[in-house]
Amino acid sequence: MKRDEGKLKIIRETVFKSIILEMETKLNDRATDERKRTEMIKYTRSRLGDLLNSFSEGDLLPKREIVSEQDFEKHILKIINKARNQLLNEMEKEF
Amino acid sequence: MGTYSKNKHYSERGRTGGEGSSSGDHQRKVTSYSISKADVNSFLIPILKEIGKCIYPPAAPLIEAAYQVYKHIDTIKEASSAVVKGDYEKATKVVLKEAGKEAGGAIVGAMVNHEVDKGAELAGETVSNSLPTNEQGKDLAGKVVKGTGKGFAEAVGDKVVDKAEDEVSKDET
Q: Interface pTM (ipTM) of the complex?
């Protein structure tokens, strides 16, 4: 296994789950139709998964060494923002 | 846990309408999901715009658990190989030696999450035998094995263990 493969997976999983967790919580508050909520989550999961899989090592791995939980949080936030922006662009273009 | 879509073309399939379609944007749907433009504009886009301004409170324990695994990934890989071979004693020793007291229980929990009960038992042993006064370690072990971090630990741990299994089978052949 490449040295950084495990780290890449952790970063991808954490970003993915953080976004989906927030999405699910907010959708539960706003969309009343359960079927629609489920469909929207499925759609987002699929798009986000594809997007994160397309990110390169350079996109995902931190430039500086992570030495604290705060560093890790900051880095995850950076990737969340990047993924969020790209997902928004894609959705706006498609619909 | 199957979090990522393996099919790169999934979201491209089944879409009706499209560029140049005379059916109008509101009629355009990704039929696989029954998502309309209105759904995207009313729900998905506004929510996405809100995401990422800060760590959302429910995600905080997940990120905390993720950091512990991230920090000790090499140890986890080594210990996972021992778990795959059924040598739980060695796995525990590796974790304790390399990771020290900090979050030892959490690492064992994540590492053997494919056997959650065993993970919990090992984490418990690790905590009670080696970390008798480390409340943080106990707390983390609980979160990873039983709490919010469980799903995450399952995802990461499964993959680490899968890889370790591959490596072990390569060694054997």
A: 0.89
